[in-house]
Amino acid sequence: MSAPVPYAGTPAPGVEVCAVVLAAGEGTRLRPLTERVPKALCPVGNVPLLDRALARLAGLGLTGPRRVAVNACYLGDQVVARAGGRAHLSVEPDAPLGTAGGVGRLRDWIDGRGVLVGNADAYLADPQAPPGPDIAALLDGWDGHGVRLLGRPADDPHAPGTFDGHDFVGFSLLPWRLVRDLPATFGDLVRAVWRPAEAAGALTVVPYRGTFYDTGTPADYLAANLHAAGPDGLVDPAATVTGRVTGSVVGAGARVHGDVDRSVVWPGATVAAGERLREVIRAGDYLTVPAAR
Q: What residues does 71 pair with on adjacent strands?
């Protein structure tokens, strides 16, 4: 067996960490897009969100079914097929178990390790560090005892939902001592782990200096795509474009014969001649979701 790749951020000696990507949610705020594709597989910059999450973990040396798990439920067969052999899979029956229940269902797999939990729908980008090293500070020197959250300063540091004046940005680090008691029933990490740890003085917020979108709404999903594309936009080489495309993302196999501005055209989608799309997401031949704030 080959030696494990070292972490870009290193916990204290003797502390082992695994990772869980939460990908079971229904993505109700992105409907009707998520009626056909689970939120975790919606493309951002022509890369499914799940692939982005797994690439970030790989940048920390966390790869393979022994060290990375993915949960699935809504349209779970698609998530399972996409994850393939890259991760241990936990398919939740009936309905998603929430963030705490999803981790609780993986207790036997976590088995004494600390766990880095990431939301599949989190889009993060730091111009000064690649995916993985950009969140490595979460792991640096961690002794396996306290809870760490990745955060960025909130517009209102006293607003409900903030932690030490920060908004949560998609990743948390949890000790086994708190994970081992999580039941495999519906619940969320905010109430089950984060707030109790905060009250006990055992929660630390690690600032994130890059850009973050949770991609949960059409507006934020579009914003994440435009950020990933950059000012010149991003057109997959396998797309057919005869129309005018400016500042947009166009996926593989898309056919764009109309005008597209600051929009997302999903892989395989069509924009007919004479159509003018602006600040929307187009999927298939006709589905158009407005995304302006």
A: 22, 90
